[in-house]
Here is the input.
Amino acid sequence: MRHPIRSLVALLALGACSAATTMQQAGPPQVGHPQWSRNASIYEINVRQYTPSGSFTALTKELPRIAGLGVDMVWLMPVQPIGVERRKGPLGSYYSVSNYTAINPEYGNAADFRAFVTEAHRVGLRVLLDWVPNHTSFDHAWIKQHPDWYVHHADGTISNARDDHDRETDWTDVAELNYDNQAMRAEMIAEMRWWLTEMKLDGFRCDVAGGVPMDFWVDARKQLAATKPDIFMLAEAEGPQFHSAFDMTYGWEFHHMLNEISKGNMPTSEIDAYLARQATAYPADAYRMYFTSNHDENSWNGTEFERMGANHVPSFILAATLRNSMPLIYTGQEASFNRRLRFFDKDTVDFTGASLANWYTSVMALKHGNAALANGSAGGAELPLATNGGTRVYAFTRSAGSNTVLVMVNFGDASKSVSYSALSAPGTYRDWFSSGAVSLGASGLVDVPAHGYRVLVK
Here is the structure.
């Protein structure tokens, strides 16, 4: 969940990112990643909307198909009970948690959830749970048992969720937690640990991670890693400082850039400027989550088809192939799902749309099968290629050892015969998606379709 004010602040801050984040690198050292994550990708599951019943039992049956896409992790939106007091809409927000160590009865029970995790592990998937650390529902037991664990107004009433400038938001269904309270911090970590020990989870996606003090996350990572050394943690946040506790952060800036490039409002040359800022600001081994959709984008800002049109295809190719990037597939993207899901009500995904499953599977296989595309510092750096493509074409290579991957994307309305120069590894390449052989010299031409791509592998 992204608070609207926090989201706006994040966007306004992008222009100042380079200077500010460069200074932030002088913080705690970056965490080490589990080895299994080096070629990983991630799939987000909206549990309520995924199946007609919205149950773990029904969702468990979908796991072999999800694993067949070639993803390595599933991220579940919150599965805990949802508060009733001040609830928004008929079913409420997933992010209004009334009990951190319980299962939403609408989805099933603890045994059903354990069966889901067991099956996920059997088919080779790691499981992350969306964790909501900033606030609870107003009917969480802590409200009465530990009122000092919350932020209060001057009149003694408990505050709604607050933004990054400590201003109260309109998220009236959730009560802001007080991270000045050490007992609350300890209990929060203990309840996260419960999911690792009792439910055998593999890690967490942490909601609005920037709303919680950084020293809490550093301590939480240390304690949780003592229980599960290969834990994986994703922050819903953007900034190099988060990599002192998290394996991966959101690539919001790049996402919004892809939206603007897709619409023709921004030239592809901005990608080079973005990558230069990232190289300066972030640790070399930082993982970034790049995406064309997720639950927030879909529900509040529109589907990838609304925001990007046909250019959702070259956008996802970039999200899957740029350095440090771990691509995300959201619920229903593999079935061309083209509707904004209601957030506070039942609204089942229609999986009968035109299937893109084989295409996404091929992209995930590209990620898995090429050392040059490994996550973080394990992969090769981007080497931009000079082309005649103007403002609508972007091209680069990544190399590791004898493996080179050449990526060309075309956001334009017409196919383009793209001339390139200074290719560092000429020779015979294979077109990843057609399997045809392509001979490339140090300079030459590559045909790229409109709203399309070419990915050539050596």
